[in-house]
């Protein structure tokens, strides 16, 4: 039976074009019904143009307002009561959709999700988790990547539990290896936050905690889940995105610099395509917001239709994996 996913049609930098095209791609490829939340008079003509008479399960949910990237999150959430974010998340709360995806303002998405959906029992703060590629070809999780700039040890412990469950239920890792991001593997390394968190993680029963891990371990497959506060995680994520862009552009320029390299580029085009695919954020769909009472996935602001399509896929996978019930059970007070 198809699963209903609601998309913030006004979220991305190129909204609603990317969202509409991505919704159509998802409706063709996955067993989903996609609901586009936003102003009908803007969405309808573009949707009709791209459907070209095809009958696909893509629908419009009217919302008269939307939150931009320039809006101050807290103010916009209160002032824009009929925003596409709020309308979409209300559908999730009311059970009319299994999950919500947005490529819009991250701060507003988190604030709206907390207000509309509420928090899971036992969770103090939500956490954004992102999927990273590794040299082993297997994915790895990093959290938090921006929801919480300042954290205490208890927050990081909860992030570890939520990341463990997401890796197990969604990525199908039997016993996820959980590491604490620090500046050295030794227990004495790090700041007061990591040193105070370390013994708490070691004491958790049922968590495959492997100790401190370093920044270089994010991409070598040493851990399946890496935990840190949102400040460190966001810097690591944005730095990684910058390096990927630098490597891709530099490699492309080098391959075009001489006749010999151009011939080599033609011969290695497939390999270069696979390289780009492994590092492309659009393949991973978005960052789940763990800890809220519902499914909310936040995508990159520059998401194209491929990223939107994968975001819808990830939202559906999250909804079907029973992640939230497992988180509440794991964090239940004995």
Automatic annotation (TrEMBL):
Keyword annotations from UniProtKB, A to Z: Acyltransferase, Cytoplasm, Lipid biosynthesis, Lipid metabolism, Phospholipid biosynthesis, Phospholipid metabolism, Transferase
Keyword Lipid biosynthesis annotated: yes
Pathway(s) served: Lipid metabolism; phospholipid metabolism
E.C. number: 2.3.1.274
Gene Ontology CC annotation, any one: cytoplasm
Gene Ontology biological-process entries: fatty acid biosynthetic process; phospholipid biosynthetic process
Molecular function in Gene Ontology: phosphate:acyl-[acyl carrier protein] acyltransferase activity
Enzyme superclass (EC): transferase
Keyword Cytoplasm: yes
Domain of life, source organism: Bacteria
Reaction it catalyzes: a fatty acyl-[ACP] + phosphate = an acyl phosphate + holo-[ACP]
Location(s) in or outside the cell: Cytoplasm
Task of the protein: Catalyzes the reversible formation of acyl-phosphate (acyl-PO(4)) from acyl-[acyl-carrier-protein] (acyl-ACP). This enzyme utilizes acyl-ACP as fatty acyl donor, but not acyl-CoA.
Subunit structure: Homodimer. Probably interacts with PlsY.
Alphabetical list of HAMAP family matching this protein: PlsX
Homology family: Belongs to the PlsX family.
Name of the protein in question: Phosphate acyltransferase
Gene that encodes the chain: plsX
């Amino acid at each position: 039976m198809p699963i209903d996913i609601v998309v913030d049609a006004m979220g991305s930098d190129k909204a609603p074009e990317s969202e509409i095209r991505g919704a159509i791609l998802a409706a063709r490829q996955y067993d989903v019904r996609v609901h586009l939340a936003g102003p009908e008079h803007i969405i309808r003509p573009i949707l009709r143009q791209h459907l070209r008479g095809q009958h696909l399960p893509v629908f419009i949910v009217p919302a008269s307002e939307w939150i931009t990237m320039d809006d101050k999150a807290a103010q916009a959430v209160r002032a824009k009561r009929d925003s596409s974010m709020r309308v979409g998340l209300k559908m999730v709360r009311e059970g009319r959709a299994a999950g919500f995806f947005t490529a819009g303002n991250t701060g507003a998405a988190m604030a709206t999700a907390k207000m509309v959906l509420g928090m899971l029992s036992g969770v103090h703060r939500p956490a954004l988790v992102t999927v990273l590629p590794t040299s082993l070809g297997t994915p790895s999780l990093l959290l938090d990547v921006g929801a919480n700039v300042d954290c205490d040890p208890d927050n990081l412990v909860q992030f570890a539990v939520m990341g463990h469950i997401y890796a197990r239920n969604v990525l199908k890792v039997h016993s996820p290896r959980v590491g604490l991001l620090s500046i050295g593997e030794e227990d004495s390394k790090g700041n007061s936050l990591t040193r105070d968190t370390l013994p708490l993680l070691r004491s958790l029963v049922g968590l495959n905690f492997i100790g401190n891990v370093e920044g270089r371990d994010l991409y070598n497959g040493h851990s399946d889940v890496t935990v840190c506060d949102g400040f460190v995680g966001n810097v690591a994520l944005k730095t990684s995105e910058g390096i990927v862009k630098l490597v891709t552009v530099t490699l492309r320029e080098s391959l075009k610099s001489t006749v010999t390299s151009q011939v080599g580029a033609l011969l290695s085009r497939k390999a270069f395509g696979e390289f780009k695919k492994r590092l492309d954020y659009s393949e991973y769909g978005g960052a789940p917001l763990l800890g809220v009472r519902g499914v909310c996935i936040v995508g990159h602001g520059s998401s194209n239709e491929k990223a939107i399509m994968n975001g819808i896929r990830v939202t559906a996978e999250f909804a079907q994996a029973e992640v939230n019930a497992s988180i509440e059970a794991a964090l239940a007070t004995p």
